Amino acid sequence: MRKILLLFFFVSSLFANNFEISPKNISQCKNQICKNILNHYANFMKKIEHESFIRKLELINSYLNSLMPRYDDFYNTNVDVWSTRGEFLRRGGGDCEEYAISKRDSLKDLGVDNQKCLLVVQEKNTKKYHMVLAVWENLNKEPLILDNLSFRVLPLSKRYDLVPEYCLMDGKYFKIKKDGINLEPVNIRMQTYENLIKKEKEEKFWKN
Which of 17, 19, 28, 198 has the fewest CB atoms found within 10 Å of its own CB? Predict the structure, then answer.
C-alpha cells in the first residue's frame, strides 16, 4: 500500500504545475518591473490553487483587473494584435481581449477545466464591441462573466449592459443563444484569433 501511495505522489508530481515562470519568459523582460510582475503572478497562482471554483474566478478576475488597461480598440478601429498571457503580463496590461485570454489561461492552470470561451459582446449603451470571459460552472446553466470593467463575477443574465455576440473556444466559433446555455457553430473567421492560437502554441509560460 505504501509503495502504491508513493507511486501515486510521484506520478502526480510529474503533472503538477509548480507555478515557476520559464527562463524564456523571464528573459523577454526588458526591466525589473516586468520580472516583478511575473514573479508576483506566479506566487499569487500558488497561493490560490486550492481555493473553490467560485473563489478562483473571483480572485483571478480581481487580480488581473488590477493591471492597467492599454487600449488598442480593435473592434472599433479594425487595428489590433491579440497578445498571449505572457505578453500581457510582461507589458503590465492590455486591451479587453488580453484580460479575457489571461483569465482563461490562468483558470485552466488552476485546474478549472470547465467550459470557457472568449465572448465577444456589444455594450448596450455605447454600441461598442467588448470582450469578456464566459465560464460555465454547469453546462445546464448560463455562464458566469469575468470582465475587466467589473470586479464582480455575475451570471450572463445579470449583465444587463451586455449583448452576447460570438463565442471563441478551442479554435472554433459559436453564436451564443440568449439563454446563455446553447451554442450554435457559425462559419466566420477572425484573423486576430487565428494568429493568437499560433502564438500560444509557441509560448512556454511555465518552467514545467
Answer: 198
> For residue 200, what are the contacts with CB-CB under 8 A and spacing of at least 6?
84
**Phi, psi for 18 (deg, rounded to 5):** -85, 0
The alpha carbon of residue 125 and the mean position of all alpha carbons in its chain are separated, in whole angstroms, by 25
Structural domains of the chain ordered from first start: 53-202 (3.10.620.30)
pLDDT mean by block of 10 residues, the chain; 208 residues: 48 63 96 96 97 98 85 53 94 93 98 96 95 95 96 96 95 88 92 95 92
Residue (of 103, 102, 105, 97) closest to 121 by Cα position: 97
Backbone angles phi, psi at 169, to 5 degrees: -150, 125
- Answer whether 19's CB lies under 8 Å from 42's CB: yes
CB 59 within 8 A of CB 48: yes
